[in-house]
Amino acid sequence: SSGINAEWSLRPGYKCRCYKVIHGWLFLSSLILLFMFTFLYLNEVVIRFNLAMDYITIALVVWNFGIMGIISIHWKGPLILQQAYLLIISALMALVFIRHLPEWTLWFILGGIAIYDLFAVLCPKGPLRILVETAEARNEPIFPALIYSSTMMWTVGMADGEPVGGYNPLNSNAPPVDNQQLSQANHVDAPVEDNANTTPPEEQGVKLGLGDFIFYSVLVGKAATADDWNTVIACFFAILIGLCLTLLILAIVKKALPALPISIFAGIVFYACTRFCIKPMCDQMALHQVYL
Questions:
Q1: Catalytic residue (one of 160, 189, 212, 283)
Q2: Known active-site residue 212
Q3: pLDDT tens for residues 45-64?
């Protein structure tokens, strides 16, 4: 519910151009996750594995780790470093849900947030749809602390039936285009290609909300608590399959789509089938020494 309240609070703030307030809220959230939660979880790892490490060393490690994350997310840094820190923040936030929520509550939240994502992105009055449309109307990028930017691109020129090399194989009677005309056309199109290459990497490719990675991490992390690697791998591949299907639909409809529903529902189905069907069958086969 806190994520839903944050979305509804972000929409009026962004429409009223309260950028400093939003930046401050995102900066404070990143600060708490990268410093306080990193220290708490690192301290638990040290205690769990009985490692010899003093508090000064832990403080130096957390300080360097947190400052590098703040700079790469909220200021400037390589895209791959920004992506890595956004994934780490998602994992840290997912650990909070996994540790402090009961199991069935967590599963209901996963299913509910997937359904809510459909409303938030596809409905005309959905908060995420309004946020994206407002950013596009103002020609402004959405806050980098909320968006995971990838450089994956695709081309669909062949799908539109465009001829290649001045010759259309579907119409063999059509005369080929003159080579001089082709060279002139390529000469005219060259500046457009150069302008496309000047676009920053953060503004190209597919963009995913950070909340999507948080709930992906929750699903995989909850599967890991079952102490069965088959369940973890099944959920991991379910998320990848759902994400690939979402990107395929995105390439067809060419508008903002929710990234949670297909992946989350596929992950829940894979989790239930693997844990309650495949795992007991494998245990019985191992008990009776049956090998396939």
A1: 212
A2: yes
A3: 898 888 888 889 999 999 99
